[in-house]
Design goal:
With 335 residues, this protein is of the alpha/beta class. It folds into two domains: 182 residues, Isopropylmalate Dehydrogenase; 120 residues, Isopropylmalate Dehydrogenase. Helix 7 packs across helix 8. The longest helix is centred in the C-terminal third of the chain and has 21 residues. The radius of gyration is 20 Å and the shape is globular. The protein starts with a strand and ends with a helix. InterPro entries: PdxA, PdxA_fam. It is found in: Cytoplasm.
Length: 335
């Protein structure tokens, strides 16, 4: 157990290495400086050489992280196959990137880590090395799925959003969207908001697919024939779901006060608003896992890697949110 600010907390969080040529090492160091006094405690699984601007304490097991954390960033070493040049991708290091994720998940499943926080990966270089998954979310679903498909949520103070279709072209997203898929996501999101965020009766706002939510069918009938039946099914199962709402007015301050999460029909429909609202403080949360998992709401930033310019705000927010979710889950299981 970890004692911080006089409170007993759970195991430290496991932070994955992410793309070695990106900003993962830099923001890990900056995040440690930001939270080392008050927590949450975490340890990095990766090559210690990636950490340039913080003291490092090499550890052999997660249980050693707590004692080291106030003085140095704990690092569980995972060597790379090839030297790292900032901003230059090397598929030879892809196996270590994948192994970092696998180790973090294994620690969390065993209760030796309170949750997993993932540094950004470069999907193209992992794909070139034979990685079969579109991204983190799908891989984590394979490693730590809880019997339901993993769902990606983006969250910041004042807004939570979930895209029903994710890493697909817009044409493919439209072909993939079904009433059943919306209902499935709505149920997973409602359950996660209760379990992970402590909301007894979550309020879901469902975005329409077409401009003006179809304008009574004059701009497309999908909102009438696909989206509306999903909302009816969610309400019939006891979930407070409303809509479909015109997406262009769904993210105003007044509208945001009326719901706990928005379900959007495709990726950019909900990710553009949240990244516009809080790019530096947004957090990617994977719902439907046995473990807690969060991630910064940005990519590897290869263009500024090694320059000391990276902002660690989103990683700090991801660490804090992971700790909060772990604490909420813990309260639900304690008598």
């Amino acid at each position: 157990m970890i004692v911080q600010d006089g409170r007993v907390q759970g195991p430290p969080l496991a932070l994955t290495m992410g793309e070695p040529a990106g900003i993962g090492g830099e923001i890990a160091a900056k995040a440690w400086w930001a939270v080392r006094a008050a927590g949450p405690a975490f340890f990095l699984i990766g090559d210690p050489a990636l950490v340039k601007d913080a003291p490092v304490a090499l550890i052999e097991v997660p249980e050693q992280a707590a004692a080291a954390f106030p003085q140095a960033l704990p690092v569980l070493p995972l060597p790379l196959a090839a030297p790292v040049l900032p901003g230059v991708l090397n598929p030879a290091n892809a196996p270590a990137v994948i192994a970092s994720i696998e180790q973090a998940v294994a620690f969390a499943l065993a209760g030796r880590a309170g949750g997993v926080v993932t540094n950004p990966i470069q999907k193209s270089v992992l794909t070139a090395a034979g990685f079969p998954h579109p991204g983190h979310t799908e891989f984590l679903g394979e490693l730590a799925g809880d019997g339901v498909p993993p769902v990606m949520m983006l969250a910041c103070p004042g807004l939570r959003v979930v895209p029903v279709t994710v890493h697909l072209s817009l044409r493919a997203a439209l072909a993939t969207l079904t009433t059943d898929l919306i209902v499935e996501h709505g149920r997973i999101v409602a359950a996660a908001l209760a379990r992970d965020f402590g909301l007894a009766r979550p309020r879901l706002a469902i975005a329409g697919l077409n401009p003006h939510a179809g304008e009574a069918g004059t701009m497309g009938r999908e909102d009438i024939e696909v989206v509306a039946p999903a909302i009816e099914a969610l309400r019939a199962s006891g979930i407070e779901a409303r809509g479909p709402y015109p997406p262009d007015t769904l993210f105003t301050p007044r509208a945001r006060a009326t719901y706990d999460c928005v379900l959007g029909m495709y990726h950019d429909q909900v990710l553009i608003p949240i990244k516009t609202l809080d790019m530096d403080g947004g957090v990617n949360v994977t719902l439907g896992l046995k473990i807690v998992r969060t991630s910064p709401d940005h990519g590897t930033a290869l263009d500024i890697a090694g320059r000391g310019q990276a902002d660690a705000g989103s990683l700090v927010a991801a660490l804090r949110m992971a700790a909060e979710i772990a604490e909420t889950r813990g309260k639900a299981t304690r008598p």
